[in-house]
Amino acid sequence: MIIESLRTYNFRNLSDSTIDTSNKHVLLVGDNGQGKSNFIEAIYFACYGSSFRTRLQKQITRFSKNDLSVIASIKNGDNTYKIKVIFKDGKRKTYINDNEIKDRKELLSICTCIVFSHEDMEYVNGSPMMQRKFFDQTISLLNNPYIDSMRLYNAVIKQRNALLKNGDESLIGIYNKKLADIGLEIQRQRTWITEKCNEIFPTLYEKISENPLPVTIIYNPSWKATNCSEDIIRILENSYNRDKKYEMTTSGPHRDKFMFIQDERDFISTASTGQIRLTAIVMKLVQSVLYGNLMKNRPILLLDDVLLELDISKRERFLENIYDYDQAFFTFLPKESYFKEKNTDNITFKVSDGVLESI
Amino acid sequence: MKSIDELIRSFSRLPGIGNKSASRIVYHLIEQNRNDNLMFGELISTIQDKIHLCSICGSFTETDICEVCNDPSRDRSLLCIVEQPQDVFTIEASGVYNGMYHVLHGAISPLDGIGPEQLSFGEMLNRINSDEFIEIILATNPTEEGDTTALYVMHVLKHKEIKVTRLASGLPVGGDLEYTDKVTLARSLRGRIPMNS
């Protein structure tokens, strides 16, 4: 899949214009604060209808403006799609080929982009919630209905918590059963994704870091030693008094944890900033490799400044190991470009004050 | 103008009607025949006097007992449980069901403060205990709340020897497999039915 062109209107500081991006490598070069990352963000916005940097519409709308739009032309196989996402009067509307879609998850079947950005470190050394977010995102990319499982799980948790606060206690058995069924499904998917990641991550991390001690991922579910929903119902029944006291469900996949282990010890707590950065970057790489392997389609990569964070040898080894993609967008500071040779695969834009100029 | 604005606001409070549709309706009302407006107003102001709930099933009716409950030709061994009176009319319009109904008037949702005691489960149990139903058909919505409500009915009926079924969910008839969303497809696969038994 390839983004053939992108048109933005009132999107952060980007000038309102259509940019032709049909090359394999799109290089955005400019000083800080000129709009390179904003362009990357706009592409992500067209692919998923949301931003990876903020949840607030106001922040992505140009200063003093109220509405914005992003229109992308995306080629996937033999089909070309026109995706339009607009924010108007505080409401978001998303269109595929001029037909409005009700649920943004429909976008997932059209285009998959994987963004590498500074914020990814949060997935590695941030809160367990951020870690779950990463693995949940990865599962959703490979198995779209997982999004509905997550939505249902969150809905059941909310209902059960409301019940614990002030509800009819005779209903608790029903919510325990529902939570067990949907929670078990989430637990199975998270176990599966951990296995899949462990098939790729340790080797890839070792290759790029040249550190021979393997780093592996461990999934640490909140409900332990469970294979069937009866086990989970028993756990929920046993913790009922505690749940009732705190007026919330104190166990379940919303309390799951993931860990990175090296030499049988927690790797992240002793890792250097550089190692954490590399772990985050390699995890994103794993996401794109899994997508390529399992979905028989190749993603679009968005690399926002991440190469800057690696030393030269790691940077080279990283670039050698990304190959499973149809298109990649890179941001660089001036004179930093790592694509010296000019060829038809590449197009370079100079980004200055929100204006992209092909050079 | 105050009277126009107030009327627009009243219309836009109705379900499915936004500000734009509301103003279109209001301007149309101003232009249209005065008698039509009078009749329309009369219909609106008297609807709640004319319509009340059937004392047996809880559906809407103009008489004490609704047409379905009154009809001797209906199959009194089947009871279909629905969330809202509208659901009765939807199923009736399909013309394929000839049994009885029971309207719960909502679905269980602790978040909205709706538990079993807010719904007409008591009346439902009384009917099941006194009438001779052979099968209970759960026709609650395929939502989180509808599923919980169906599970609750199962729970209260678990000691009774009565067949309980739930409406199937899956592929739309006449639809194309290619254009079916993945969730519906996954649900259809899970709920597949044997062809050779």
Strand order of the largest sheet of chain A: 2-1-4-5-6-7
- Large-scale geometry of chain B: globular
**CATH architecture identity of the largest domain in chain B:** 3-Layer(aba) Sandwich
Radius of gyration of chain A: 22 Å
Query: Biggest chain pair contact, residues each?
Result: A-B, 22 and 18 residues
- Give the helix proportion of chain A (percent range): 40-55%
Q: Please mark out the parts of chain A with pLDDT under 50 across 5 or more consecutive residues, or reply none.
A: none
Structural category of chain B: alpha/beta
Strand content of chain B: 5-15%
What's the main sheet of chain A like? 6 strands, antiparallel
Oligomer: heterodimer
Q: Taking all residues together, what is the mean pLDDT of chain B?
A: 91
General form of chain A: globular
* Low-confidence sequence ranges of chain B: none
Enumerate the strands of the largest sheet of chain B in spatial order, edge to edge or round the barrel: 4-3-5-6
Question: What features would you describe in this structure?
Answer:
The complex is a heterodimer of chains A (359) and B (197). With 359 residues, chain A is α/β, with parallel strands linked by helices. Chain A is built from ten helices and 15 strands. Helix content of chain A is 41%, strand content 23%. In chain A, helix 5 (146-166) crosses helix 6 and helix 6 crosses helix 7 (229-238). Chain A is globular, with a radius of gyration of 22 Å. The two termini of chain A are 24 Å apart. The mean pLDDT of chain A is 90. Chain B has 197 residues and is α/β, with parallel strands linked by helices. Chain B has two domains: 2-50, RecR Domain 1 (Helicase, Ruva Protein, domain 3); 53-166, 3-Layer(aba) Sandwich (Dna Topoisomerase Vi A Subunit, Chain: A, domain 2), CATH 3.40.1360. In chain B, strand 3 (78-82), helix 5 and strand 4 form a beta-alpha-beta unit. The radius of gyration of chain B is 21 Å and the shape is globular. Chain B starts with a helix and ends in a 7-residue tail after the last helix. The A-B interface holds A 106, 144-145, 148, 152, 155-156, 158-160, 162-163, 165, 167-168, 170-171, 173-175, 177-178 and B 108-111, 115-117, 144-145, 147-148, 151-152, 155, 181-183, 186.
